[in-house]
Amino acid sequence: MPAVTRAGIRLVVGLGNPGKDYERTRHNAGFWLLERFAVQSGVALRKDGKYQALVGRLGAGGQTAGAWLVLPQSFMNASGRAVQMLAGFFKIPAAEILVVHDELDFTPGVAKLKQGGGIAGHNGLKDISQRLGSHEYWRLRLGIGRPGDTGAGADYVLQRPPAEDREAIDAAIGRSIEILPLCLAGDMQGAMQKLHSFVEKEKPVEKKAEEKKSAEKKPVDGKPEPRVETAPAKPASKGLFGSLFSRNKK
């Protein structure tokens, strides 16, 4: 696994489902992080209807300048459309893309960074990998824990976490935001060392919390995750896409 990208991370993608019915559910952990980072960075995320995404760009100056921030708005299983369009137009390779998403395999409060690997049944990652034709993008994984019934994952991710878990996830988001400048500068090894050192230190606490975890609440509205069938998108022409982002390009 390479420790440093050639030009740093140029595209950061937060995964989730749009709409008020889903905004507080576990599957939206990627949205939570990117929205918070955008606010702290003074970046306005504006909706682009043609590409079904909220898009913003970090301003000039400093090591994070010029990176794109994207929240796909086409539901989880079609998340790759906006990623494909932006990456194609700005010629951003997979190794310079960071996707932030929820992770069932980690307890709430754990956050880890890696490049490539499997998708573990995550619909957002599946669509992104298919559209990019690569698994080699970076992933920032935010632990949400697993349900007691291993077959209930689809419902579990669409439930709101209890207050204790949400607090742990928010703390992990805060630590993850601290290492984003390192990622954007291309120092992935430094970012991993800083983030993962906390994970190692906190393992005993996380185990204790998991043992005390209470039974899960029911889904917010009982709705299954929307299934959106979309045809693979073709890269936008330079003229059309350029007109949409000409105000943001530096």
Q: Main attributes?
A:
single chain, about 250 residues, alpha/beta, Rossmann fold, 7-stranded mixed sheet, globular, disordered C terminus
Descriptive overview:
- The protein has 250 residues and is an alpha/beta fold.
- It has one domain (11-245): Peptidyl-tRNA hydrolase (Rossmann fold), CATH 3.40.50.1470.
- It contains 7 helices and 7 strands; from the N terminus they run E-H-E-E-E-H-E-E-H-E-H-H-H-H.
- The protein has helices at 29-41, 80-89, 123-132, 153-156, 163-185, 188-212, 238-245, and strands spanning 11-14, 46-48, 53-57, 68-72, 97-103, 111-115, 138-143.
- Helix 2 packs parallel to helix 3.
- The protein is globular, with a radius of gyration of 17 Å.
- The protein starts with 10 loop residues before the first strand and ends in a 5-residue tail after the last helix.
CATH C-level class: Alpha Beta
Structural class by SSE content: alpha/beta
User: How much strand content do the residues show?
Assistant: 5-15%
What is the number of helices?
A: 7
Q: Give the tally of β-strands.
A: 7
For the record, give the distance between the C-alpha atoms at the N and C termini, rounded to a whole number.
31 Å
